[in-house]
Structures are given as structure tokens and as C-alpha cells.
Design a protein that fits this description.
Elements (H helix, E strand, L loop, with lengths): L7 E9 L2 E4 L9 E2 L10 H12 L4 E5 H4 L6 H8 L5 E4 L5 H9 L4 E5 L9 H7 L5 E8 L2 E2 L11 H10 L4 E6 L12 H10 L4 E5 L5 H9 L4 E4 L1 H4 L15
Helix pairs in contact: 1-3, 6-7
Amino acid sequence: MAVRTAVQIIPVIDIRNGIAVRAVAGQRSRYGPLQGRLTNTAEPAEVLTALRRNFGFSLCYIADLDAIERQQINRCTIAEMACTGVPLIVDAGATTVEQIEALLEIGVRQVVLSSESMHDLTQLAAMAKRFDPVSLIFSIDLRHGELLVRDPGWHGNSPLDLVRYVIACGIRELIVLDLAAVGTGLGIPTLQWCQDIRRLSPDVRIISGGGVDSVSCVAGAARAGLDGLLIASALHDGRLTSDDLAAYLSR
């Protein structure tokens, strides 16, 4: 198995009610309008443009909190962000073929299917067959290390049990995210899970994040074999700069 020495930095923008918001330990009711050093607006497309201008990112992860919480998707906002030309990974709580199609039609590059949102994981194999596998990512969602899964048939299973199933369904890209770590700056708690997944399936693409606060944290993610690293707060508030991340920004 080849040792990965670099990791792609993927900025994160959380949106609610059409504006960018700042994450607070995955407690979504506490998320307020984003206030950062890169731009004086919380308009998502402007935030994305500022991130690209300052860092040169070639990919961005969008979490549509309204859609995830079973409210209306921020369709116009996401479409406007897609028009910036930055490829988008979008978690909008998609659980059906129609929802996946709607996101792809407005220019989304990859749609996230998540354990937190999917109420019937038996549909996953059919979804993977219907769409180009490159257009789908599955998110293994955790909270304080415990699997967060909506499908009652999967209650009591381990994250690795779900990983095996997802890979068997034909999904080749995974996000592993502990929601309790998001926005805390306390380090990435999922690295051991990611290493276990890498041993289980050396060829799957693995993305993680949550709690990133320093270059040493990024380096640790690279050593752990991650292909992609999600970062939000540390970029917006200046804890990580383009100079800090220069070694990773060519990815």
C-alpha cells in the first residue's frame, strides 16, 4: 500500500437561510452568520470567491443546513455558487434519486449521501448503479465517536460495518466526520477510524475533518493517509493562511 504524503485541502461553507454561517461543535441551532477575515459579507458565493482568491482552492464542500434539517434546499444559493466555477461537493440531505438529480442539474459536482440523513440504506446500491460513481460520496457521520445513523436497521452497528456495506454498494469515496468536533479547533478525532478504513480498503478515497486548527493538524491528517481534509473556521478566522498551507495547495 502506497504511503500518502499529501492531502487535498477542501474548504467548507455551511449555509442556512441563504447565508454562510459558522459551525459550533455541530450544534446547528447555535450557528450564526459567518464573520471572517477574508470578506465582510456572509453571502455564500462571495465567501467562496474569497476563499478561491486567497487560497486557490479547486474544490469546496457545501453543507446546506436547511435541507439537512428537512426544510427547503437553498437551490438558488447553491446554483450561484456553482456558477463561480469552483467544483462543489454538496450535502443537502439527499435521500432520493430525484434529489440527487436536482443537485447535479444545478451544477453540483458531487452529491453527499449521509448516514445522518438516509432513512433507508437499502436504496444505496441502486443509487450507486444509476449515477456515475464519481458523482456520489457517502458520509459516515459520528457524534462523540458513535455512529450517527438515521436508518433504524443500522442502529447498534459500528462505523466499519457501515463502511463495508457502502463499499460493497459501489461507492468509492467516503467522508468520515464527527459532528461534535466541527468548529471546535480541538483536533481531528476521526483519524484512527480513517486509518482503519484505509487498511480495510486501500483504494477508497477518504476525506475527513472537524477540529482542524493548525498546520501540524494538517500534517497529521496527511500522515494518517487522508486524501482530503475539510477545513472551515481555521480558514475564515486566519488561524491557517495560504503561506501555512502552501505545501498542500497544489493538490
